[in-house]
Amino acid sequence: MGGAVSRLTVLGSCGAWPEAGRACAGFLLEHNGFRVVLDLGYGAAPRLFAHCRDGLPDAVIVTHEHPDHCADVSALGRAWHYTVQAGEPSARLPLHCTPGTVRRLEAMEPRPHPETLFEVRDLAEPADIGPFRMTPHPLPHHQPNFGVRLTAPGLTVAYTGDTGPSPTLAELGRDADLFICDATLRTQPPEPRYLMTAAEAGHWAAQAGARRLLLTHFWPGTDRPAAAEEARARFGGEVLVAEEDLTIEL
């Protein structure tokens, strides 16, 4: 792939477990020929391979260790081992993640060990990933979770992973061209809060001054059009709903 292309493709949009015909969290961000995966949960790998027919991605970011965000990284590791490493045994795919993510991957497939497949880097540390500067933002969740802000000249994409409401979200999504935001819940539960509603996603997108909002991580069975309307009541920009294989030009 060549040329000045910037786009995001939804690989999976569900939280917890995938609805029939769908997948859990996963996105493919492409910018000027560089491809980075943001999470890869249950069922997301087949769609990744469909959208990378000319090869595999250049880097992977996993926001936290829950399997609806990282289970299919194991499938990607196998694909990497049997294709790329078959010709270049020392080649490893950059993987920015939490330590718990590596432990989960190792439990699924200890041989070859994930660290022989992936060049593991601590997601807590800012990093240059291809054309992007990646800045992590710790956010409230049941496990250590980092929202990530990816900036390149003329482009900013922010992604929450899973999160409860937090003032940090305004910083994470500040002036982003696209703010990919957790919208799991249909109603607000008691404190402490580790996930958000679509209305709350709209609120924080407005606080951030983001240009567009992409709602994702829907609990199976969620009325997605209704969720979008709840977000629009709080956010004046464009509200998009994550659907598998949706491609958004950036």
Helices, strands, pairings?
Blueprint: E1 6-12, E2 26-31, E3 34-40, H1 45-51, E4 59-61, H2 67-70, H3 73-82, H4 84-87, E5 93-97, H5 99-108, H6 114-117, E6 118-122, E7 127-129, E8 132-139, E9 145-152, E10 155-159, H7 168-172, E11 178-182, H8 198-208, E12 212-216, H9 224-232, E13 238-241, E14 247-249
Helix pairs in contact: 8-9
Characterise the protein shown here.
The chain has 250 residues and is an alpha/beta fold. The chain has helices at residues 45-51, 67-70, 73-82, 84-87, 99-108, 114-117, 168-172, 198-208, 224-232, and strands at 6-12, 26-31, 34-40, 59-61, 93-97, 118-122, 127-129, 132-139, 145-152, 155-159, 178-182, 212-216, 238-241, 247-249. Strands 6-5-4-3-2-1-14 form a seven-stranded mixed beta sheet. It has a seven-stranded mixed beta sheet with strand order 7-8-9-10-11-12-13. Strand 12, helix 9 (224-232) and strand 13 form a beta-alpha-beta unit. Helix 8 runs parallel beside helix 9 (224-232). The model has no long low-confidence stretch (mean pLDDT 97).
Key structural traits:
250 residues, alpha/beta, Metallo-beta-lactamase, Chain A, 7-stranded mixed β-sheet, 14 strands
The residue ranges in which pLDDT falls below 50 over 5 or more consecutive positions are none
Rounded mean pLDDT is 97
Radius of gyration: 17 Å
CATH class designation: Alpha Beta
Q: How much helical structure, as a percent, in the residues?
A: 25-40%
Helical stretch count?
9
Shape: globular
| Head-to-tail CA distance between termini | 16 Å
Strand order of the largest sheet: 6-5-4-3-2-1-14
Q: How many runs of DSSP E, i.e. beta strands?
A: 14
Spell out the helices and strands N to C.
EEEHEHHHEHHEEEEEHEHEHEE
Strand content: 25-35%
